[in-house]
Specification:
Layout lengths: L6 E2 L2 E2 L9 E9 L9 E8 L16 H11 L9 H25 L7 E2 L8 E7 L10 H9 L3 E5 L8 E4 L8 E4 L10 H27 L5 E4 L19 E11 L1 H12 L6 E5 L18 E6 L5 H8 L14 E4 L10 H5 L3 H7 L8 H21 L3 H9 L4 E3 L9
Length: 420
């Protein structure tokens, strides 16, 4: 059966999480400090209370700049060289981006995210997950996956990276400051990619470690260097307070995960800071940024969830050195691949668009036996089972999760034999 977005009280929204906990969310910024990176992450968490009104659910696109950034990544605006023709081309391109940005919001309905903004957290201590996005993504790109994980009993800190790899990055240095925007750094045509991605990966690694340190501070009640910005205007909420989270974030049970370049970020952080993370999950990891890394993580902590349509020989060759065996007769590798899955399978893009005619034109029709939402939830189930294995040492739930979806999965890396 094909999937389309549900609708409540006249508003389209992403599917509600499957776990037993309601989910709350807040956008958290760090204040400007010497020697520290400026942080922005959306924190999803198990939420107290029964309040689950749609008018408290934030929009998937928090600002029009995000839809413009998604579009301009696909159709970049040419530089202006002060000639009449160049100015005309640029004006046409800017107008086209604005039109397509509006069309993007209209086609998707800019759905709401099933997490109540500024709701109090449940008074219970939960593990924390740090989520690293891929190129041209942002903190809301994976909202279905992040809310589903949170609903199972996790804090999820979805970063919006400041390394100029996000579609666009919102910048704010104080609660009363002016929002500015950090644009994505584009690779010049014909320029080698290695230097840019190495610089970005180094930044991401520092950012992840600092984010975990920030979560430790918040858990201790040291909140002076961080602040909240609500995305909803004109909605009555109780006084939101980072002090709510004191004693509730189990940073001693931290998990790192990410998609695409966020997968490479996961591998790097698990290798260099493995003592701080109990487990790591790399969703359809793009391995180019870590192709020359020598330091290997504890492979028993690391799982790759690949998507068949993206992975190629070069990428898998790099990934092969991170593969390890598991004690299961049928699924004996820490590399699991979802059959026929696209690179966007863990994002909200397919569930937001494939139910529309334009989305089917752009991304193709859904598999009626395993639609885009099924793929998303499979990612969440594999994540939960792997983390439970890391926390408890019990492999059985992990193999049960695989068996549940085994007709849509295969395991291991098989490389083509080299010709003499």
């Amino acid at each position: 059966m094909s999937y389309s977005l549900p609708k409540t009280n006249g508003l389209f929204h992403l599917s509600c999480p499957t776990g037993k906990y309601r989910v709350g969310c807040l956008d958290i910024f760090s204040k400007t400090r010497e020697g520290k990176l400026p942080l922005l992450f959306r924190l999803y968490y198990p939420s107290a209370g029964e309040h689950n009104a749609v008018d408290r659910w934030p929009a998937w696109l928090p600002h029009s700049r995000y839809s413009e950034a998604y579009v301009s990544a696909k159709w970049p605006v040419p530089p202006c060289r002060n000639t009449f023709i160049d100015r005309l081309k640029q004006n046409i391109s800017v107008g086209t981006v604005s039109l397509l940005s509006w069309l993007l919001r209209w086609v998707s309905g800019n759905p709401r995210i099933c997490a109540t903004e500024a709701n109090r957290p449940l008074n219970e201590r939960f593990p924390v997950v740090l989520f690293s996005h891929g190129l041209i993504a942002c903190r809301t790109t994976y909202s279905t996956l992040c809310t589903d994980i949170a609903s199972q009993g996790y804090y999820v800190a979805a970063l919006e990276h400041g390394d100029s790899s996000a579609c666009v990055r919102m910048m704010l240095d104080s609660p009363d400051g002016q929002v500015t925007w950090l644009e994505r750094e584009e690779l010049p045509q014909g320029a080698p990619e290695g230097e840019l991605r190495a610089r970005q990966l180094d930044y991401r690694e520092k950012e992840i470690v600092q984010c975990l340190d920030s979560l430790r501070d918040i858990d201790k009640g040291d909140v002076d260097q961080h602040f909240i910005k609500l995305s909803l205007d004109g909605v009555e909420t109780e006084e939101s307070n980072l002090g709510w989270f004191k004693g509730l974030i189990a940073t001693d049970k931290a998990v790192i995960c990410g998609h695409s370049m966020g997968g490479a970020t996961t591998v790097r952080c698990l290798a260099n800071h493995g003592h701080q993370f109990t487990a790591g999950i790399a969703f359809d990891s793009w391995m180019f940024p870590v192709r020359e890394d020598k330091n290997l993580p504890n492979l028993e902590k690391l799982m790759f969830v690949n998507y068949e349509r993206f992975q190629g020989e070069k990428n898998l060759t790099t990934m092969k050195k991170y593969e390890t065996e598991l004690s299961h007769e049928e699924f004996s590798s820490n590399v699991i691949t979802i059959k026929k899955a696209r690179h966007y399978a863990c994002t909200d893009i397919l569930v937001a668009f494939q139910g529309t005619r334009l989305g089917r034109l752009l991304f193709g029709a859904q598999d009626p036996e395993f639609n885009s939402y099924d793929g998303l939830i499979t990612n969440s189930e594999l994540f939960q089972a792997w983390v439970l294995k890391a926390f408890t040492g019990d492999e059985q739930p992990f193999f049960e999760a695989i068996n549940k979806r085994k007709e849509f999965l295969f395991h291991g890396i098989t490389l083509k034999a080299k010709q003499d």
